[in-house]
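Batch job 17 of 40 flagged for manual review because the log was empty.
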Amino acid sequence: MGIADIKDFTAAVKKLTSASKATGPKTEKGKLRSALNATRHGLAGRGLLLPGEDAQVYAEKMDSIFTSMAPQNDAEAELVALVADDLWKLGRLAKIEKGVTLGRIEELLALTGTAEKAGVTVNAIHAVGAALTSWMAEPIPTEKDNEFKRRFDAMVNAINMIEATVAGIPADLIETCNDLVARLPGVKGQTEVDQAAYVELFEAARQVMGLLLDRGQREDAAQDELRANISGIALPDEAELKKLARYRKMLEDSLQRRLAALDQLRKINASMVAGEADVERAREYRMKLRVVA
């Protein structure tokens, strides 16, 4: 390969690597709006970290790739940066594909009676849990003031929900709760809270909560078994699958092109032997090109 060929190839590499450098909007608002354009699935955008992605993990992966590929000059470093981006996005795509399938499983599960029963139990647990937490918060009301009324209303609503929606709670336990609810308001004109009844209602409601939690565990196990059965038929939407497949092919093609370009560029510099200095040089290029804010 002659000097003219080297210059032509170097120019081609620069053109390839500069393709990822969008000129885009100039104002801060415009830049922010542009940065958010393709974040629905996080399938586009160089070096873009999505919520839930760990910047430290990203940086370590980039460092590993730069060290293993040991770029020797600016052109190689640019190509390695693009290769690293493609590998990161391929890893993200695998998670997205898994998430799409899991989402479809949950959609199908939600259509079953098992999920409906579990939802009722979960709502009941939240209601009773909130009522119990409020009921025993310090200081305990001693007068039938607004705070007592707020706690009392929350407890009554929770017990009524259990009685109306949750089957299988012992009738005598519900009856005890209702008797205490009727007893707590006391006689007309009485301003003091019946402390014994107050504590007894807490204990009765706590027993209800224990039964609800046991029920919830059994229903969770039933849902897990049903998820396993559904997984064999939970194919995601065909359009979604096609979109993900297209993006995977685009990424894989891009990765192959960049690796081929890097291989050709290195053939030009075949006489250069990698050494310890090259590892340090790779780190320098990494810091130069791939700093994560």
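Reviewer: the log was empty due to a logging misconfiguration, but the result itself is present. Confidence is low (pLDDT under 50) at residues 1-7, 27-47. Unflagging and moving on to job 18.
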